[in-house]
Amino acid sequence: MEAVQKDHWYFVVLIFLPFLKVAVQEMEAATVRLEEGMILDCLCPWDGNLSMVSWTKVPDKDPVAVFHPEYGVAFSHHYRERIEFLRTTPMDGSISMRNVTHQDIGVYHCSVQTFPQGPWTRNIQVEDLDEPPEEDNSAEAPTPEVIKTDTELSAEQDNNLTISCNHEHNGTVYQVILEKMPHGQPWGIIGVCKKVEGGLVGEDYSDRGRVSCADSLDVSLHLTGVVPEDGGFYRCTFSTDAGVQTTTVLLTVPPPGGISLSLYMMYIYIGAGAAALILLIVIIIVVMKHRKKSRREEYRVKLHPSQRQVDYSQVLDTSEA
Fold first, then answer.
1. How far is Cα 226 from Cα 261, in angstroms, rounded to an integer?
2. Which helix H or strand E contains 8, and what residues bound it?
3. Please, how many CA atoms are within 13 Å of residue 300, restricted to the half-sphere of its CB?
4. How far, CA to CA in Å, does 119 sit from each of 185, 202, 244?
5. Would you say residue 37 has pLDDT above 70?
6. Given this model, what pLDDT does residue 269 score?
7. What's the rounded Cα separation, in Å, for the pair 206 and 222?
């Protein structure tokens, strides 16, 4: 009886051993040296149909790169032109990274969506195993980025505001990345909208507002109680079958002591209304005076008709003389 129970236990262990090995691999993070052209392996161990591969950087879950068998690849602005999907096998989601810097150190999370088995994930820790390079103080300061603004907005503090990035370009959109650049700071991703297997997926990383995704992949950010820190540049990067296109919005939040745009417009409306009212009063006064004078003339003629005849006789005498 005990031998039968042991055989049954061994049989259960053999069945679940592959799944336990996969679970252990997902929990453990492989370590990769920070170096030029480093490869982050993400090879799904089973067969099936690959639906999508997505890379994020934890703990903030910042999007890095996405591969879709139908729509192709899409990259975050910071990793654009630096990452390449290797695709050595149909289930391979590995990437290589070039032009690396110490900002690339951290934990990367790879998620492989497959059918019918489901998702498979892996974490990779990128570390600098060498001595950090000495800073070169003689190097010239980087040239500041020149930003072309498509739309400029102004919002008063404590008011509500919606920042929209409507897609007005050619091509079919399959992903939109919403980024924010506060004054004097680098770009940071605050939202992602993408289509996966015909469905709409939205990712909200904003700590100040709420990111919404429309079916047409028009993305918007809803801000409640605007504060000065909300000011800055907002950029929407549209990944389409015709290429990557961007839309940039500049939000300005005036200080409390300054005159806001709405208050300035209110002063203009009040001044224009007061001027129109004064002009109307002057016109009414002039018309009333004119009518009053005309009535006086008519009343005087009716009251003294002989005076008018005398005046006519004086005119005739003068003409005969």
1. 15
2. helix 2-27
3. 8
4. 36, 18, 28
5. yes
6. 84
7. 10
Q: What is the pLDDT of residue 307?
A: 53
Q: At what angle do helices 305-320 and 261-303 cross, to 10 degrees?
A: 80
Cα separation values, 299 from 90, 246, 264, 305, 312, Å: 107, 79, 53, 10, 19
Under DSSP, is residue 194 helix (H, G, I), strand (E, B) or coil? strand
Instruction: Please tell me which residue, 266 or 155, carries the higher pLDDT value.
Output: 155
Q: Give pTM, 2 decimals.
A: 0.43
Which residues, at least 6 apart from 273, have a Cβ–Cβ distance to it below 8 Å? none
State the Cα–Cα distance between residues 283 and 294, nearest whole angstrom: 17
Residues 32, 126 contacting (CB under 8 angstroms): yes
Give the tens place of pLDDT for each residue, 22-34. 443 444 678 999 8
Q: What distance in Å separates the CA atoms of residue 64 and residue 53, rounded to the nearest whole number?
A: 11
Token pair in block for residue 191 = 């939202």
| β-bridge partners, 193 | 176, 202
Q: Give the pLDDT confidence of 225-242 residue by residue, as tens digits.
A: 999 889 999 998 888 777
Return the biggest CA–CA distance within the chain. Answer: 161
Q: Which amino acid is at 277?
A: L
| Helix (H), strand (E) at residue 311 | helix 305-320
